[in-house]
Amino acid sequence: MLGHAGNTFSVASSFDLNTRYKKAMNKNLTLRLLGILLLIYTVSLVPVWLVSLYYKDQVSSTWFFLIIDSLIVGLFLFYRYKNSQQSLNPKASFLMVALFWFVFSLLNSFPFMLINELTLIEGFFESISGLTTTGATVFLEIDPLPASTLYFRQQLQWLGGMGIIVLVVAIIPMLNIGGMMLFKAETPGPMKDDKMTPRILHTAQYLWVIYTVATILCGLAFWLAGMSLFDAVGHAMSTLSTGGFSTHTASLGYFDSPLIENIASFFMLVGAVNFSLHFAFVRGLDIKPYLRDGEFQFFIVTLLILSALITLALLWGGVYENVFTAFRYAFFEVVSIVTSTGFGIADFSNWPYYAPALLMLSAYIGGCAGSTAGGMKVIRISIILKVIARQFRLLLHPNGSFHVHFKGQRVNQNTVQSIFAFLFFYLLIALFFILAMIATGVDYVTAFGAVSACINVMGPGLGDVASSFNSISPTGKLLMSLLMIIGRLEIFTLLILLSPSYWREIKLLD
Length: 510
Fold this sequence. Notes:
Among the domains are: 11-86; 411-509. It contains 21 helices and two strands. It has helices at residues 2-55, 60-80, 90-116, 120-131, 147-162, 164-171, 179-186, 200-224, 229-240, 258-272, 275-284, 288-292, 294-316, 323-338, 355-362, 378-396, 413-439, 444-455, 474-488, 492-495, 500-509; strands at residues 405-406, 409-410. Strands 1-2 form a two-stranded antiparallel sheet. α3 crosses α7 (179-186), α13 (294-316) runs antiparallel to α15 (355-362) and α18 packs parallel to α19 (474-488). The protein is globular.
């Protein structure tokens, strides 16, 4: 009995030591990742500092000190905990992704506070809006801002468009910490297991190469169309990221150029299409992957139908008498809203009839899975409609056997259930935040517009937030900041963190 008890004590002591060791190692891994994030933040500030020096906007010293401070802390954490090489377990990846987005958003709020004299909540809101590619802003006027701030806002959206985690996985191959788990926890869309290449590192690198090349082409097109080089680079960043920040208060309406609008529409569509299709096109120099893709087909048809409906509203309301002019404005705003970019060439909130409501509701459709766009994603909407059509067929033919197919493959029941669960939670969360915003004192239209803009990471809303969120209370800004992250990470990544069972399992894993 004594011997048995002694063995039990020995095993228990060993288990306790092992648990403590794992907890220490997990803590070290988190701090090492934080160091890497600070180093990425440091590198991202260098071009902003150079812009400040070139345009002599009198704030270059602030950018320089931010670079030095983050570099010192980042190097310390990275080298202090460089021996933390263990892999990240799947469950912890959800927490790590949420932590990355929160910390990086907080870091990028400091420049807004120091240079533009925003409060912490305002700076946090502006930072999250940029990184999540929402495009909502607390600034009333954009044109008077320093050149470095204007560039900084555009760069935030460009980095957030492809994703902070995808960037980490792409440029730091020595991170043997479960890159696939981080990638899946952040990547939007229901088909997260689809990879362009066998290795997730190569997938992330290819994504960034395509994204960067497309941004350069967009910037070149803007510049040749008449934009200044500064405006062309800035708008290219926010166009491919489907972010919507502009270097002018009037957005793209500042240029009043159909050519620039068409270029923007084309590259907004590029950003809102599944990047695996771009990869297939580049690899084979063949447009057939686009033409054969069911999600892409549904996406284009939806845009054309919505554009036609908005055009009719503009003609009936007498806003524009010429059908071509009406279609010009309708098509651009539809593309801008559905792709969750949020560029504007007109104030659609003042359009007549159903136009403003239809545009805001169309934001919930969003872009394609695996794109930089927000919303519920076209693939989900398409599958839901197919399921509804299947139910109608069953009503007519109760003994029939009908299945839902998408892209030539049968959609299994688990996927259908997950899509309906996502839809339910998406709309439930939207309703909750609408009620919460009303409780902060805003009217119903403003609450609906703000929530629709933030959960779909789209930017402009209705009512008091049609052009700026400046008038929203600090509580409202915090609520919308949280909602932007929820929308960017597509709900479940953050909902999992609210589950008590998740924390119990994480504790056991430690």
